[in-house]
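thought: user wants a sequence for this fold. calling inverse folding tool.
action: design(structure=
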């Protein structure tokens, strides 16, 4: 199936980036969020990010206009999904909310439409179970910031069929991304490997092995990571890191994924990283 019409549910950090890259690749996009203010904010962010690409001469001003013109908006999930070939859900990481959205989409989207989730840690198999089309439900895990990062982790649920997987792999390539196919296990590959590293860095800090700056410098200069694990945790959000570690710990049942008490303490204090101005490092302003 050729995917021409895409609905994106949720226009936050990830959703506006997903709408951006889909529209830029010539797809007609319907962006859905809770109210007009949120939709306008998402459109403003997309315009700002496109301006940046124009300034860097990655795209021309007319490419920007064409991209913007391909995006329409609505506050209704049903309306957004009604004519879509593919829906990408990017609402907050709460199972009950994903259930509500997928039940609504299953009722509203055409029978042959693919329903994808950008979840970072909720089981695709579980999400598929909220629908009567589990073979057409799949994970499309984009990375932040979406217009910049090349990876799409494509997650097959237990029932996801080959045709759905092939369509999503092909579309991801047409979006200029490199898709990697993985199976549905807690944390998939990305967070199963990344979060224990971040967690171990927090343990090293808590146990006084080294200061935060030193831990990050070891990983940057010693392992050629573009940023240290504590800086990365601050960027992702310490609450998000904690909740993914909790999923890994609970669903894999292995204590090696136990969240570090210092991470819990920071989250309890409201030290959530960059977004709150304070995490392992302080962010002025
Ligand atoms: P966010 O909080 O920035 O955006 C979520 C958006 O969904 C908000 O604009 C919110 O108003 C909207 N929303 C909430 N309920 C809705 C509903 N019923 N209908 C329509 N829109 C609704 O969240 P973010 O960070 O974009 O995360 C979205 C998903 O992407 C989550 O599942 C998260 O785990 C995943 N993810 C996040 C990454 C990140 O770095 N932020 C990276 C990869 C995946």
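)
observation: tool returned 285 residues.
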């Amino acid at each position: 199936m050729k995917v021409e019409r895409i609905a994106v549910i949720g226009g936050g950090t990830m959703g506006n980036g997903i709408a951006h890259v889909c529209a830029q690749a010539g797809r007609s996009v319907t962006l859905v969020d809770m109210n007009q203010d949120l939709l306008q904010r998402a459109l403003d962010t997309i315009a700002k990010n496109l301006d940046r690409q124009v300034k860097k001469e990655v795209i021309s001003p007319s490419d920007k206009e064409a991209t913007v013109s391909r995006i329409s908006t609505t506050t209704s999930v049903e309306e957004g999904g009604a004519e879509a070939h593919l829906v990408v859900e990017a609402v907050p990481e709460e199972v009950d909310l994903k259930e509500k959205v997928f039940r609504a989409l299953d009722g509203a989207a055409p029978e042959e439409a693919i329903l994808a989730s950008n979840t970072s840690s909720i089981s695709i198999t579980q999400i598929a179970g909220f629908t009567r089309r589990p073979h057409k439900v799949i994970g499309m895990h984009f990375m932040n910031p979406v217009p910049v990062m090349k990876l799409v982790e494509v997650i097959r649920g237990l029932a996801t069929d080959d045709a759905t997987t092939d369509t999503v792999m092909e579309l991801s390539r047409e979006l200029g991304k490199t898709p990697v196919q993985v199976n549905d296990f807690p944390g998939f590959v990305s967070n199963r490997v990344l979060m224990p590293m971040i967690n171990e860095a927090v343990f090293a800090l808590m146990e006084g092995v080294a200061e935060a700056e030193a831990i990050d410098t070891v990983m940057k200069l010693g392992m050629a990571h573009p940023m240290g694990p504590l800086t990365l945790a601050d960027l992702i959000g310490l609450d998000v890191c904690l909740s993914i570690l909790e999923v890994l710990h609970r669903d894999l049942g292995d204590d090696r994924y136990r969240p570090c008490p210092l991470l819990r303490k920071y989250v309890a204090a409201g030290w959530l990283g960059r977004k709150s101005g304070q995490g392992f490092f302080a962010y002025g302003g």
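thought: summarizing for user.
answer: Here is the designed sequence. The radius of gyration is 19 Å.
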